[in-house]
Amino acid sequence: MSGWDIADIPDQTGRTIVVTGANSGLGKVTAGALARAGAQVIMACRNEVKARGVADEIGHGAQVRRLDLADLTSVREFADGVDTVDVLINNAGIMAPPAGRTADGFETQFGTNHLGHFALTGLLLDRVRERVVTVSSGAHAAGKIDLADPNWERRKYQRWPAYGQSKLANLMFAYELQRRLTAAGSAKLSVAAHPGYAATGLQSHTDSFYDGLMAVGNRVFAQSAHMGALPTLYAAVAPEVEPGGYYGPGGPLGLRGHPASSGSTTASRDEVTARRLWELSEQLTKVTFPFTRR
Fold first, then answer.
1. Is residue 163 annotated as a catalytic residue, yes or no?
2. Looking at the domain 6-285, which fold is it?
3. How confident is the model at residue 213 (pLDDT cuts 50, 70, 90)?
4. What is the mean pLDDT of residues 161-179?
5. What is the pTM of this model?
6. Whether the predicted pLDDT of 202 surpasses 60
7. Catalytic one of 157, 163, 197, 247
8. Could you read off the pLDDT of 71-87 as tens digits, one per residue?
9. Chain-wide mean pLDDT for the chain?
């Protein structure tokens, strides 16, 4: 996969791909690249006005549908309106906001980044033909899954540990989904990706002094959103992708560069915690997965 770039995306004509959070940053680049390769891209976004502007820029092949991952009613309504999907890309996310709650009472980051995508995937899985791609982060290494208090109801909220937990949950979900697909005899793939350190709008919504620091970091250290989106695109379309694979930039420390296989922490590979997280996620979202051999 050395030097893999957007030009290497196979022809996507006749394929339908859902990209969550496609109105900005990595999602915008991902949606545009797939549409230009011939796919019909469903841009699943909370901000429909902004998303329609992006869809107009992309042109033919992009359509907008409302999805608010912080509201399970919205997730169900979106899923009800989707027919067959070749690839589901769980891209949307929020990073280190002030303490808050989703419409269903979950801590905002755990609820949006993990539970919203968990529910969406479960509701759509029987209509996904090929693969599910879930975007995690190198920040998963700083995360810890607190199964007794995942929504920070008893602990004092800390935005960065909460973000790390949500990104670790994303990665553990992707791995556990592949284990369950394999056990069911399904040919579908669950794959994870991370962008390394990429300059996106994600870093400007913490409502804290970190916004200024990260703005400097984006200018000095970060790679472009184009480069940051490549691992997700690779995971979504490359024929050589491994079941349960994890892909990110291949440069130093996994921060920059073209897509390559990425390592992850021992915690992310903890199958016992992953099963318990899955069971907890089912309880919280009231979504169970329809595993079949298709």
1. yes
2. Rossmann fold (3.40.50)
3. very low
4. 98
5. 0.92
6. no
7. 163
8. 999 999 999 999 999 99
9. 93
- The tokens describing 204, both together, are 């400007």
Q: Where are the domains of the chain?
A: 6-285
pLDDT at 222: 74
